[in-house]
Structures are given as structure tokens and as C-alpha cells.
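FAQ: What does the model actually see?

It sees only this:
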Amino acid sequence: AYRLLATAQATTGDVTGARLTLADCAQVWANLELTLDPATVHLQEQMQALPTTTPTSPAAHVIRLPFVGRQGAFDQLRRAYEAARAGAPHLALIEGEAGVGKSRLLGAFTQWAALQGADVVLGQAYELSGRFPFQPLAELVRTRLAREHAPDDLLDDPWLTELSRLVPDLRERYPDLPTPTDDAGAGARLIEALAQVGLALARARPVVWVLEDLHWADEATRAALTALLGRWRTAGAAILLVVTLRAEERATSPELHGWVAAAERLAPVVPITLAAFSAADSQHAAMKLLSDTASLELCEWLFAVTAGNPLYLEQVAQGLVERGVVAWQDDALRSTPDLDVSQLADWVPETLRELLLRRIRYLDTTTQRVVAAAAVAGGRFTEEVVQAIAGVDEDALLTALEVAERRQLIRSEGNQYGFTHDKVAEAMYSDLHPGRRRVMHRRALTALAERQTATPADLFRHAKGAEAWEQAAQYARQAFIAAGAIGAQLDALTFGENFIGLLTSEPSRAVVQAHYSVVYQGLFYSRLGNLYINSGRYAQAHGLYSTLLMDTRTANIPYLEGMALYLLGKFAAENQQDLTTSQHLQEAALQIFTMLGDTNQQISAMVELAAIFLARGDIHNAYQQLQQALSLARDLHHTFKSIVCLHAIGNILTKLG
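And it is asked to produce this:
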């Protein structure tokens, strides 16, 4: 009975109460001159390892809703865990709007799972941080291996070597690890190394692998998760994968729909949809939050203001504390006796953003500047980076961070910080004057460029925000190449589109075009178009080439006009089977390249024309085009293109016998 009560208390966040319950149990047993059973001793040890949420001082008071209205969802997670523990890996998909309580449910469940002896591994994706492939998994694995006294006892060196791609810290612990091999199988080995982490942990005890905010995860991470599900399913590992997802993001994302469908083919999926509180649940939560001192009128007003959104309810309660109409008394939040709800009518926040901004504006000027700098930094941030962005001295920075943490705007996470909710950062960032935002991004770019750990994606975001167009294009191109190299196509497309946007749009166009030759621009369009085609986005590829053609004709750039005609011609032949249109386009491209004296592109157009003629059965013209192309290739001493021409000529001669 004592164990059940303590477990229930810890699950609802009352870790201190759970410890006291077990202490009472130990005292009773001692009075009876009995020894505590091993299960109770083990539970005591687990309770000591859990963080307490009980406030220790007024400055540390944290408004946190009680765990209400979510028992059905909690039971679904519990059943999924029991099934996974029996050797049938499951995916639990917690879905709901922003602020509806996904993290709160997840926190209660992971605490319960830890008490059951599970190995809980936590990870999260972020919106404002510059994304790079596998970022959430890299943080997840880094955090879990940091808890391991000897990771080489958990995993063999070949798997640690592969994981060092994501977790460079491993090389500091094991400097003798060989350098990972970059070849066609690198991606598959990395996925298997991640799978081996889960399998190794699951051999000791059941594993709960958590990733919050899947909608912000990169394509590579989502693909890896489906592969891991399949691998663990095949191995019969005792692993439960839990992800959270914003309903509004999934509703507008075919990629997320596709990911869920793919996961359903690999393992049982438990969908858990969270809705806003009902009026009854909202009243229950408000009464428990305010220690049964909330009037019915106040409960009804809170529900009307928040629409049952738990995050809104927490934020409104914090606002009421700051207004002095509710107060902390003996570590409990209580409504003041003379509270007149009608006096709150003019205070009702129009949106959460406005409510958050109102809280931020109560801060002193320095703290506001530091919070703004943190919003520009994005995701998790360090003191050094925020100090550089805010332009304040160290003492002022630390004081400001302490104030912001006490006001529940940010929280410390080891040697880093993060916002308590992404909407706090979004509100602050959008409220910045464009000039101040630009300067802060410039400072962030300077600070991060000096750090070897900064990714091209991070640097691109800050360069773009700083309107440093040449650097933004450089980092967008680097991020495009890096994502493509590991098969993260959607991320590569995003950065490729950003590069093209900088190349073709004001106010960056003139600066970026001056930095990249028309030959490089043509090659980039070709590479991006191929990526569209390889990922099945044929309409986007055709649109890219067509826009290039129109823009270059307007701007009178013959080389790029020829490239657009050439790419459209290839597209018509290979993806539309329209040989007539393809021939006209390639002939027009050949005419331009001949006029420009660009022998290299002449050869390419001739080879494409030869393929068109051959497809039509016009062997004579195909042979003639290839002979001319071969002659030009030999004049250029271009070995590869000479081989291509000779191979095609050989095929024709073989057909002719």
C-alpha cells in the first residue's frame, strides 16, 4: 500500500510527498523491528534519483497544473509500455495542439516508467535552432551515453566509431577510435549503430525512447526512426518509442502523414490525441491549482479566457500572480478573498502571444534585451552566445538570466538554457524591431562562426537574419551539400530553395549573382532539379527550369537561358516522353551554346539530341550528332565525354550489325 501511494504521488509530480510516504513506511517497519523488502528499498532509491518539483523559496515558485483530465491517455501509454516490455516494440504517438499538455502527459508517464524500472531516454527537436540531419537523435544519444560509466562496455568499438559522427564527444573519451569511413554504406551503418544503442539498453531492462516535437525534426531523423522501429521489431526488443506531434503541423504536412503511415507498416502504433480541457476538467484543474480557493466565477472566467488550453491556463495564472489577485501562501497558490472577477474584464489577453509579451515587458530593460538575444539564438543556448548577442557584461547577463528563469520564461538545462515554451521565443522574436533583430543576428553570426561546432544551417539562419547575403548564400550552399551527402533530401531541398531565393530575389540578388559565375548557377539549378526529380517532385523541377528560362530571357543572360532550355529538354524526354518538344528545346539550347562558343555544353546538347533521334529510330542523325560531339570532346581532351560518345556510337554500330 505504501509503494502504491508513493508511486501515485510521484507520477502526479509530488516527489517530495512520495519520499515522505516511504520514510513513514520505513519508520513503521523499524518500530516493528522488521526489515524493508527489496522492492520498497529499490523504490526508495529511485525516488532519491528523481528531481523534486517542490518549491524551496518564493523565488523558486513554479506554476504547474495538476495532472487532471488525462487518465485515459496515461492508461494508453501504460498499456503500450506493457506490450513493449513483453518484446513487441510499439510507437506511441501523442498528438495535440500547441500547449495542450503533451509534455505534461509525457513527463508523468516517463516518471512512472522510470519507477517501473524502465531506461528512459529523452530527446527533443527544436524549431528555432538551425536544423541539421539527426540533430534530435544526436542529442538523445549524447545525453544517454553521458550517463554510461563506460560506453565501450555497452557497445563495441565499430558502433562507437559510427556514433562519433553524431556525438563527437565520444572521441574525447576514446581518442583511439578509428575515423568513420565515408562511403555508400555510411548512412546504413549509422542507423544500425543507433539501433544497437537501443538493443544494448533493452538487454538490461525495458527502454522508453522519447522524442518530443517530431514536427520539427529533420527528414533524416524521421527516416531513421522508422528504420529503428523495424529493426527493433525484428529483434523483439523491449522498446517503446514515444513521440509528440502538433496536430496542426501534421494536418498541413504530407511528409508527416507519410511518416505515420510508414511507421504503421513496421510496428503497432498507439495514437493518443489530446484535446483542450473540458469545462469540468478546467474547473477541476483550477480548483486544485488554487488549493480549492477558486470561486466558480473565477473558474468560468479562466475557461473562457484559455479555452481549456493548459498552457494558457498556466500563463494566465502567472499573470494573476503578478497582478496580485492570487498569491503564494505556505507554498500553495491561493486566490485572494476579495478577488472580483468582473475587474479582470479589461485584462483578458487577446492571444497567448500578447500575454507572453506583456509578461516580458514587465522585465527590466537589460533582462528584456537578454531574453530577446536568447530568442535570436534559438533552441538551446549558452551564456557565451547570448552575451555576445545582447552586448551586456557577464554580471548583467547572469542577473538577467536569473530573473528570466524566476519569471518562468527560460529554464536551465545543465550548461545550457532553453525557453519554457517555444511560443515565448516566438513572441519575443516577432516583437523585435527589424533593425535590432538584424544587428543581433549579425552578432550571433560572428560569435558562432568562431566556434567549430556551429553547423552551416545555424550560420545560414543568422546570416540571413543579418542580411549578410553573400555569407547566407555560402552557408545555404554548404547546408545543401551536407544534407544531400547523407541522403536527407527534404532538408537539402529546403536549403537549395533558399540558395535560389537569395540568387533571384531582392534585396540579395545583385550581391549573390556577383559572387557566383553563371556556369556555377547553371550547375546548381541542374543539381537542385535532379534532387526534385529523384524525390518524385516532378512539377517542382519543371517549375524551377521554367522560371529559370523566363528570368534569364528577361535579364538577357544567354548561358543560363541555354541551360534552362537544355534542362527542360531533358525533362521533356525523360519524364514526359515528349520527344518532339525535347528536340526543339535541345536544338534551341545547342544554337545558344554554339553562339557562345561553349564547347562543353554543345557536347551535352548533342548527346541529348542523339538520344532523341535514336529513340525515334533515326539512326543516321543520331550517329551524325555523336560523331560531331566526339570530335568536339577530343578537341577539348575531355576523356569522360569522349567515352560517353564512343559508348553510344558503339551501341549504334552493334544495332547495325
